[in-house]
Amino acid sequence: MAIVNTTLAELKDLVGKELGPCKAQRITQEQINTFADATGDHQYIHVDPERAKNGPYGTTIAHGFLTLSLTLPMFAEILDVTDVSTKINYGLEKVRFPSPVKVGDQVSMTSTLAEVKDIEGGVQVEIDNAVTSEGASKPSVVARSVLRFYS
After folding, report:
1. How far apart are the C-alpha atoms of 32 and 107, rounded to whole Å?
2. How far apart are CA 55 and CA 38, in angstroms?
3. What is the pLDDT of residues 103-147, one digit of tens each?
4. How far, in Å, are 49, 63, 85, 146 from residue 125 at the CA level?
5. I need a surface site. Which of 27, 52, 104, 113 has the fewest CB within 10 A?
């Protein structure tokens, strides 16, 4: 699906509408290893392919927080608010990791604007995001993100 370009004034018209999906991207062992180095989380299920073969998933898996960190750049492929001067990642309301992302899987995301409310100088948007991984019966990440757009 193509990116939706909109303005601050038009954002409220998108509440309740599913947007996306973004372009799928393949998760590599290099990404997983780099994330492990950045966070200090070197658990074998992430970084040791040989040992992970005998683990619960049969291969290495991405860190849940690695997959979560992809939601912002994936959202940028779904929606662009064209008349803003500043875009702020304001936080998260709820995050769950229902299923793992195995190394080599492709992930994609759809988003639904849940709420748009006026704030001083702009709007605050709450977005329900679902990151899916090929072959999985459940999403890999379900998260409500909060963004602020300032004019």
Report:
1. 14
2. 23
3. 999 999 999 999 999 999 999 999 999 999 988 899 999 999 999
4. 40, 26, 16, 6
5. 104
